[in-house]
Amino acid sequence: MKGPNFSIEGKIAIVTGASKGIGYGLAQALAAAGAKVAVTARKKEDLSSLIAEIKEAGGEAAAYALDVRNVAMIKEVFGEIAADFGRIDILVNNAGLGEGMLAEDVTEEYWDDMLDVNLKGVFFCCQTAGKYMLEQGYGKIVNVSSQVSVVGIPEGAAYCASKGGVNQLTKVLALEWSSRGVNINAVGPTFIYTPGTAERLDTPDFRANVLSRIPAGRIGTIDDVAGAVVYLASPAADLVTGTLLLVDGGWTSQ
């Protein structure tokens, strides 16, 4: 019996910001699903353990140094990846900054850094990978947004603005590129337990506050996000484009 095709076997996937946290897990998940993975981080050596784990599990992966704030570097590195692997089929824009700051304390430098990574970097990664995808008539782009792209949180002026911009960017690119075989979507996670969020989420009061806002009654895991990303990267999601898939346990339903 024929059913939806969730396979990404043999596809070439790029994951930015893959040295830790969600990006690390997304790269592992894509590799486990059969994709050949090119992973990036500002320091290539920070990717060594990820590459080793993927290869030990029987996957194929390669590491590249990339600062997504540098547009010329994006073009150079994506060109290397396309040359090394032969094409680019999937892009997961995960690289991002998330440190909060009260609105009255936000400096120009803080604002610019947040938007340069979280929005400008995402756009130029989309643009660069998109050109390869449009030429071949096929591609899947998944932008890692956030639940706070649709609801606000204190200390989130710059972060929420950047992620809201990602959502709008995703819609516009879908309008321009979907008819040419390239699908662009976003995922919006709630609080996800990672080494980077553990300190806050292990604080009883903070954790209780977060859980009180999640109807599903638990903190998110990297696998929760990975399931959404692998789905959107697969042929099963061929008619899904320009959308935000919230992985928030119902937070934004309230």
Automatic annotation (TrEMBL):
Belongs to the short-chain dehydrogenases/reductases (SDR) family. SUPFAM superfamilies: NAD(P)-binding Rossmann-fold domains. One of its GO terms (biological process) is bile acid metabolic process. GO terms for molecular function: oxidoreductase activity. Keywords: Oxidoreductase. This is SDR family oxidoreductase.
